[in-house]
Amino acid sequence: MRKNRLDVDILRSFKRKNGVKFIGYDDAVEDFYSDRIRTGTRESTIEYYRRELNIFRRFKVKECDQIIGISEISLELLDSFIEYLRVERGNSIGGINAKVRAIRALMFYCEESGFIKENPAKKWKQIKTKEPEINTFTSRQINELLKQPDLTTFTGLRDYILIKFLLGNATGQ
């Protein structure tokens, strides 16, 4: 009785019209891990890849209702993953960028290995973070600060010199 399922070995030997080998996501990820171990990547980095790529795998299963081949990953799926991380999981920008780096590394490996013809992650950039603005003292605030130490005492004179030194104005000019 036929079960209407293809054997994994048959799928691996199958070639698409565009010449790309069909390989499942899990097989591609295992090949990626093996390659990283072979090239001497640290164990902590491989664990990072495992953690981040497993989150992407769970998202793919939830989103696509099945495990899809590595060549079927699109830029739209990657963008929806970022949206999922932001909205549903509430990840920070740093956390999202960590996942982006891991997925990009996997996709570049798959492109080099011939599992995908065109890498959708090439144009997929990390989210830019807004640099915090560093406020400086105004001239008025500096003058007020310099008026605070009592110059008739040792500690006051010490504080005054230290403030001038920290402001880069220790010479009195």
Proportion of helical residues: 55-70%
Poorly predicted ranges (pLDDT <50, ≥5 residues)? none
| CATH architecture descriptor name of the largest domain | Orthogonal Bundle
Seen as an oligomer or otherwise, the chain set is single chain
How would you portray this structure in words?
The protein is mostly helical and 173 residues long. The protein has two domains: 8-123, Tyrosine recombinase, N-terminal domain (DNA polymerase, domain 1, Orthogonal Bundle); 135-173, no CATH class. It has seven helices and no strands. Helix 2 (25-38) runs antiparallel to helix 3 and helix 3 crosses helix 5. The longest helix has 22 residues, at 43-64. The protein is elongated, with a radius of gyration of 28 Å. GO terms for molecular function: DNA binding. It holds the Pfam family Phage_int_SAM_5. This is Core-binding (CB) domain-containing protein.
Q: Which structural traits does this protein have?
A:
DNA polymerase, domain 1, mainly alpha, elongated, 173 residues
Short description:
With 173 residues, the chain is mainly α.
What is this structure's SSE topology?
Blueprint: H1 8-13, H2 25-38, H3 43-64, H4 75-87, H5 93-113, H6 139-147, H7 154-166
Helix pairs in contact: 2-3, 3-5
